Amino acid sequence: MSSSLAHRFLFAALLGAAAIAAPPTVAATAGLAHVADAPTCSSANTQVWLGDGEGGGAAGRAYYPLEFSNIGKRTCSLDGYPGVAPLGSSDAQIGRPAGRNTGAHSAVTLAPGATAHALLSIADWGAICTKAVSAYGLQVYPPGQRQARQIGFPFQICAHTSVLITGPVRAGVGIPGYTYS
Length: 181
Fold this sequence. Notes:
Blueprint: H1 3-21, H2 24-29, E1 46-50, E2 57-58, E3 61-70, E4 76-78, E5 83-87, E6 99-100, E7 108-110, E8 115-123, E9 133-141, E10 149-157, E11 164-166, E12 170-171
Parallel strand pairs: 6-11
Antiparallel strand pairs: 1-3, 2-3, 3-8, 4-7, 5-9, 8-11, 8-12, 9-10
């Protein structure tokens, strides 16, 4: 490989790393309309997915970025907390729905193709109850929507106590291991 070509690959890799390391709020809000100008995202234009890898863990909890992408053709907004509950093998809700990590939140405006996230925390069931129940997925209601999306994701829960906690929707893609304030 020529020296010039090697330098181009190194430069491209550094640019890619810089884009990944940028705080999510910077990339997600650039060039977007004001929140007051954007209607609430509808279920038809919101795709829901679980981000890659664990977003970290602490004190018997694992954190995952729950992603919300605007797949519509117009700018829209999300505000608040997603509704999340564990699903059993028959795709019916089992156990208790997620609690909320309350605090200040504000609307996130999404241009077409943009993504926001909410942090999903899953507690170690053994710290909460004595017998685990197998969940096979998540039922997710994006903020302000009444149509749930299902995500296949096996984990263990308690039958009568929630092991799930969600945070509010934040701008940008959730980055595993990134500390959110």
